[in-house]
Design a protein that fits this description.
Number of helices: 9
CATH superfamily of the largest domain: Medium-chain alcohol dehydrogenases, catalytic domain
Strand content: 25-35%
Distance between the termini: 18 Å
CATH architecture of the largest domain: Alpha-Beta Complex
Number of strands: 15
Oligomer: single chain
Order of helices and strands: EEEHEEEEHEHEHEEHEHEHHEHE
Length: 328
């Protein structure tokens, strides 16, 4: 049986080791669809996994990579056939199931999303979990009736993957977007994506008051901790905040005041175990609402071998936009 290359994490006495390995399809985990991976990407969680900064791996050994796109090699499911182009996001890939940093993958057919015709596999990984999560956040704001006419919408961590796609999506949908970032030298980039204003993240780094001045009709937050607490205290009456990340930390030093005195909503957004229905809705909306030119402008292509160099950089907040890995 022909072999293939994969990045394999193994447990050691001192923690973990991550190295390139030669595998065969017999080494792959259970599933009814086998995929020849053409592209994958780098998310914050992938960076945490590879660097060992957080206990992302739930079993050993493990192939990292929470995203992949590619072509069906073989299928035991009537839903897919050889040659179909597909996407996988989440479902425990790179945590409990072998992930996308491999030339081959095997997963359950229920995890797959057909590649929208508006995108190629590289575009799909320029979106990846980060961009798909950004779309889930936009859907959450819409579900809570946050409309463009209601006022400014804040995006924190705006230079990152979730933030970049959220800025592009919200601006195209007509929202007045304010982008928060620690890299204000990237103002031109964020305004190209559609931000009307760029603010320094330090505005949200101090201790949050129980109620601040009303500023935001809604927000997309990938930072958590004190930043999210400040955003909540500044959200307008009946506004909503979609929270999807914890780059600053998992704590939330806030009070009930914004919720009981302004009736705001804090909507958690999980991309890993989202339903198939929600995934199809999100990818359909991405195909309709995401400017393909802006998507390609925020993405930088690399060979997969560069992942070990880039993983620490994304954890340190040094990666702008999206990284696309060409596999093989």
């Amino acid at each position: 049986m022909a072999g293939f290359k994969a990045l394999l994490a193994t447990k050691t006495d001192g923690g973990q080791s991550v190295d390139w390995s030669d595998l065969t399809q017999d080494d792959l985990m259970e599933g009814n669809v086998t995929i020849r991976v053409s592209h994958t990407t780098l998310n914050y969680k992938d960076g945490l996994a590879i660097t060992g900064k957080a206990p992302i791996f739930r079993r050993w050994p493990m192939i990292p990579g929470i995203d992949l796109a590619g072509v069906v090699e073989s299928s035991e499911s009537s839903d897919y056939k050889k040659g179909d182009e597909v996407i996988v996001n989440g479902w425990g890939m790179g945590e409990t199931h072998f992930g996308g940093y491999s030339e081959m993958a095997r997963v359950d057919a229920g995890w797959l999303v057909p590649l929208p015709k508006q995108f190629n596999c590289s575009d799909a990984m320029a979106i990846g979990t980060a961009g798909y999560t950004a779309m889930l956040c936009v859907l959450a704001l819409e579900d809570h009736n946050v409309k463009p006419k209601d006022g400014q919408v804040l995006v924190t961590g705006a230079n990152g993957g979730v933030g970049s796609v959220a800025v592009a999506l919200l601006s195209r949908l007509g929202y007045d977007v304010v982008a928060s970032t620690g890299r204000t030298e990237e103002e031109d980039y964020l305004k190209y994506l559609g931000a009307k204003e760029v603010v320094d993240r330090n505005e949200f780094s101090g201790k949050a008051s129980m109620l601040g001045k009303e500023r935001w009709a809604g927000a997309v937050d990938s930072v958590g901790s004190t930043t999210l607490a400040n955003v909540l205290s500044q959200t307008k009456y009946y506004g909503a905040v979609a929270a999807c990340g914890l780059a600053q930390g998992p704590d939330l030093p806030t009070s009930v005041m914004p919720f009981i005195l302004r009736g705001i909503t804090l909507q958690g957004v999980d991309s890993v175990m989202a339903s198939k229905e929600r995934r199809l809705l999100a990818w359909g909306r991405l195909a309709k609402d995401l400017d393909i030119g802006k998507l390609r402008a925020m993405a930088v292509a690399h060979p997969l071998e560069d992942v070990l160099e880039l993983a620490p950089q994304i954890v340190e907040g040094k990666v702008r936009g999206r990284v696309v890995f060409n596999v093989g």
